[in-house]
Amino acid sequence: MKILISSIPSDSHTWNLVYMQMLVHELGHEVINLGQCMPIDELIKSAHYYRPDLILISTVNGHGHIEGMEIIKQVKCHDLLRNIKVVIGGKIGTKGEENIIYENKLKEAGYDEVFCGVNSVAEFLEFIGIVKRYLTGNLS
Amino acid sequence: MSNNKLQSFVEKNQKLGHLVVQPRMGFSSISKMAMGLKAVKLCNVPSICTITLDSYTRVNDYEGAKRAMQNNEDSLNGYPIVTYGSEKTSKMVIESITENYPIQVRHGTAFPFDIFKTLIESNIDSTEGGPVSYCLPYSRISLKKSIENWKNSILLLASATSNTTYFHVESFAGCMMGQLCPPSLLIALCVLECVFFKRLGIKSVSLSYTQGTNASQDLSALIVLRELATKYLKDINWHVVFYTYMGVFPETLCGALQLIKDSAQIASVGKCERIIVKTPVEALRIPTIEENIASLEMVYASSEEVNQQAKKLFPDIEEEKIIYEESKKLIDVTLNLNEQLDVGLYEAFKHGYLDIPYCLHVDNHNEVRGYIDNRGYLKWFNVGKMPINRSFSSNHQKQKDCLNSNKLLRMLKYVQHKYDNRCETQKKKWSI
After folding, report:
1. Least CB-CB distance to B360: which of A35, A62, A95?
2. In the prediction, which pLDDT does B243 show?
3. ipTM value of the model?
């Protein structure tokens, strides 16, 4: 699978991006890491250019639930990007365990999944396993 | 007589042998920010107030900050100083702590011009960052442009120097990426940024250094930092500010408290004048005002303790020599690249003579790598194009070259595990 990893426009943290890139690469997927502080219009351009199977928005500065909404709205505006799975994970709010309150709103806006709990990385890996099997026709 | 509030406060406490403590603190609600400033001023220990700016402001998205606050004034992760402007900010400062109390504006901005303009107009005389330290780890903006904006921003501060006020700028380069950057590069970048500030007319600076993976290595690094500051920053005021560990934090309360206390001990034994503290909730969320005050008071108390633990803290003379030589080489190579340091800094990164491990920015080579050796020292195993030596023998090469996500995660969590595991051991002891 081709996976595009990006942060949100205001997030300058990178360890999450470095780690997720390494991890996903080790699982045999092609990874493009767009890096920190990614403006939304550039993310959309990159998505058109790379045509990934999945976009992972990885963010830890607490603004994910705000800027994540803007990102998914823009992705869903583009016909060519409609079929790409889009997920968001990390510290998406500033409230610790209570960040789960943002999950429904993000999913309703179009995210296929939201990973913000203590097992978020494991859950994300399980999810991409399922997506891969789906894409290769092994899962209906 | 010309004065800097932060400089005066640090000097006064230095004479008394007191470590100055400082939090990171920023709220987007003005009333909450005011409460925080007041609480820091009124706490029982020598403390400097902080206004930490939010992420939108750091990427110069002042409208974004405004929009995000529309439904909830308290929703940002810091104070949007440019959005609020100098009138609201100086009013908040005067009403909460008076304009005479030292405050530092902390941020993480590659283009700080608007922020510096606002803080000058708000009668705030101290800030921090640097053309490299607030560009490469935190921004997509080109290093060249960041250096240019920082140059103009520092010139703005220098030109605002008056009969009554001069400005203090702290270099953030003692903390590149938060962790996994070996000491000699941190020291070199810090000294270089302070030389950059000095050459543009700043008369008061501080050099930062972050708590690392081993206290002896930290103490050795602090000695080197002070020696090189003495050499390269003649005729201006400078002091050293220690940062409590900036990497992945312990998850147990006991582990977090011990790590924070240890940072106080290292800062004290290492003769640092000031410390920026963390709170135990660091791994989870932004701390409350109360949590921040508790941390300030605990850190100060810990720095004053003369105990068995502190007496076992010694620098490592051999390590000190190695760090000194590496740091000095990196500084001199950069300074000799061009008479103009703004050009020299850019050229150094372009050639990879300076290279920050794991930094994704396009203007950083990202070839170098560190590793944690069996003593817990953070050493170089790949120096890329930097003009220094690797610090391990070739039979380690293969092992280190296979750095994978597991190894990276173990290194990222090294300090967290060390402190959390110690708590487990202690728990078992207590139950006997």
Report:
1. A35
2. 98
3. 0.85
- What CA–CA distance (Å, rounded) separates B398 from B16? 52
Residue A115, phi then psi, degrees to nearest 5: -120, 95
What 8-state DSSP symbol labels residue A89?
E
Report the chain B residue with the minimal C-alpha distance to residue A34. B360
Cα(B196)–Cα(B199) distance, rounded to whole angstroms? Answer: 5
**Over the stretch B170-209, which tens digit does the pLDDT of each residue have?**
999 999 999 999 999 999 999 999 999 999 999 999 999 9
- In this complex, is the C-beta atom of A136 within 8 Å of any C-beta atom belonging to chain B? no
Measured CA to CA, the distance from residue B325 to residue B318 in angstroms comes to 11
3-class DSSP state of A5: strand
pLDDT in tens, B23-50: 999 999 999 999 999 999 999 999 999 9
Question: The whole model's pTM is what?
Answer: 0.91
Residue type, B295: S
Residue B311 CA: distances (Å) to CA of B215, B222, B423: 12, 17, 22
Please say whether the beta carbons of B274 and B242 come within 8 A.
yes
Q: Please give the distance of CA A52 from its chain centroid, rounded to a whole number.
A: 11
For chain B, the three-class secondary structure string (H helix, E strand, C coil) is CCECHHHHHHHHHHHCCCCEEECCCCCCCHHHHHHHHHHHHHCCCCECEEEEECHHHHCCCHHHHHHHCCCCCCCCCCECHHHHHHHHHHHHHHHHHCCCCCEEEECCCCCCHHHHHHHHHCCCCEEEECCCCCCCCCCCCCHHHHHHHHHHHHHHHHHCCCCCECCEEEECCCCCCCCCCCHHHHHHHHHHHHHHHHHCCCCEEEEEEECCCCHHHHHHHHHHHHHHHHHHCCCCEEEEEEECCCCCCCCCHHHHHHHHHHHHHHHHHCCCCEEECCCHHHHCCCCCHHHHHHHHHHHHHHHHCCCHHHHCCCCCHHHHHHHHHHHHHHHHHHHHHCCCHHHHHHHHHHHCCCCCCCCCCCCCCCCCEEEECCCCCEEEEECCCCCCCCCCCHHHHHHHHCCCHHHHHHHHCHHHHHHHHHHHHHHHHHHC
Check CB contact under 8 Å for A12 and B137: yes
- How far, in Å, CA of A112 to CA of A88, rounded? 9
Q: What is the pLDDT along chain A (140 residues), one digit of tens a residue?
A: 999 999 999 898 999 999 999 999 999 999 999 999 999 999 999 999 999 999 999 999 889 999 999 999 999 999 999 999 999 999 998 777 788 889 999 999 999 999 998 899 999 999 999 999 988 886 55
| Token duo for residue A102 | 């943002």
Chain A residues in contact with B77 (beta carbon < 8 A): 61-63, 94
Asked if B244 and B211 touch (Cβ cutoff 8 Å), the reply is yes
Distance CA B224, CA A86 (A): 48
Exposed / middle / buried, residue B429 (Cβ in 10 Å: 0-12, 13-18, 19+): exposed
* Coil vs helix vs strand at A75: helix
Selection from B170, B281, B362, B348 nearest residue A96 by Cα:
B281
Interface mutation vs chain B, best among A21, A63, A105, most B CBs within 10 Å: A63
| Cα distance between residue B338 and residue B12, in whole Å | 38
